[in-house]
Amino acid sequence: MDYELLMNGNVKIGQMAPDFEAETTYGMKSLQDYKGKWLVLFSHPGDFTPVCTTEFIAFARAYPYFQRLNTELLGLSIDSNASHLAWMYDIYCKTGIQIPFPIIADRSGQIARKYGMISNDISTTKTVRNVFIIDDKGVVRVILVYPLNVGRFIPEILRIVQALQISDCSNGSTAANWIPGNPLIVPAPQTFPELQERIQHINQNRNGLSWYLSFKEPKEECEKQIELNEKNENCK
After folding, report:
1. Run of H or E residues at 73
2. How distant, in Å, are the alpha carbons of 20, 81, 84, 217 from that of 28?
3. Which phi and psi (to 5°) does residue 15 adopt?
4. What distance in Å separates the CA atoms of residue 143 and residue 168, rounded to the nearest whole number?
5. Burial of residue 4 (number of CB atoms within 10 Å: 0-12, 13-18, 19+)
6. How far is it, in rounded angstroms, from Cα 3 to Cα 85?
7. Residue 127: its pLDDT value, please?
8. Gap between the Cα atoms of 195 and 93, Å rounded
9. pLDDT tens, 160-209?
10. Which of 6, 15, 90, 174 is the most exposed place for a label (fewest CB within 10 A)?
11. What is the C-alpha radius of gyration for the chain, rounded to an integer number of angstroms?
């Protein structure tokens, strides 16, 4: 049995996110504190490091746009809470930017290993750049993993949250390179009569390539979500 599989978590898309309670820069936090909200839980290798500093500044600047989408941010590393606070203060002194979201001090690495944030082939003492997007029901919807030397593209993480939310409320899918405002892909027909009906609909509306690939505008019940997406897109 692989030692890393024994020690590290094996969180998968579609599973309930593992619960936790931890000390953070904004007091004790648990996964239950985010019930009813979407959560971007992300880990970073270490405080006072150059790539991580640029990421936290970028996350801080994007935080209002995440909040518009009922989404919170939560950072994590195995550094101490005192180290997190000193780093936050140094960023503030140098840039005037305050880090408005909590950072977990996972000194034992318990949460990091539960979520599989430590790759023993890379480092046994640092968390790699994981991103877990957890929906308002506590389900893991997206997992992203970046190496130590590549910073995350924050607008893409924001776009993924937007794509998930608009797809959920419209029962559709997003195409390659989808951005807010673009049409959604309609689920493919499952029966031959549905296929014939879809072809007829495409011929009438010119809204598809074939019976298995056609598009639609989001439903009316997504109007609020569409408005939020458009505001965020315009502000990027």
Report:
1. strand 71-77
2. 10, 11, 14, 42
3. -85, 160
4. 18
5. middle
6. 33
7. 78
8. 62
9. 999 999 999 999 999 999 999 899 999 999 999 999 999 999 999 999 99
10. 6
11. 20
Report the DSSP beta bridge partners of residue 129.
Answer: 146
Domains and CATH numbers, the chain: 3-151 (3.40.30.10), 165-235 (3.30.1020.10)
Tell me how far apart the alpha carbons of residues 107 and 110 are, in angstroms, rounded to a whole number: 8
**CA pair distance 199, 190, nearest whole angstrom:** 13
User: At 119, is the pLDDT very low, low, confident or very high (cuts 50, 70, 90)?
Assistant: confident
Burial class of 85 by CB neighbour count within 10 A (0 to 12, 13 to 18, 19+): middle
Residues pairing with 104 in the sheet: 24, 76
Q: In whole angstroms, give the CA distance from residue 176 to residue 13.
A: 20
Q: How far apart are CA 30 and CA 21, in angstroms?
A: 4
Q: How far apart are CA 59 and CA 220, in angstroms?
A: 31
The residue whose two tokens read 């936050």 is 88
What is the structure's pLDDT at 157? 98
Nearest residue to 39 via CA among 164, 149, 224: 164
Could you tell me if 104 and 111 are in contact, meaning their C-beta atoms sit under 8 angstroms apart? yes
Catalytic residue list: 52
Which residues 6+ apart lie within 8 Å of 168 measured at CB? 135
Q: What percent of the chain has pLDDT over 70?
A: 86
Distance, CA of 121 to CA of 118 (rounded, Å):
9
What's the token pair of residue 197?
């009906």
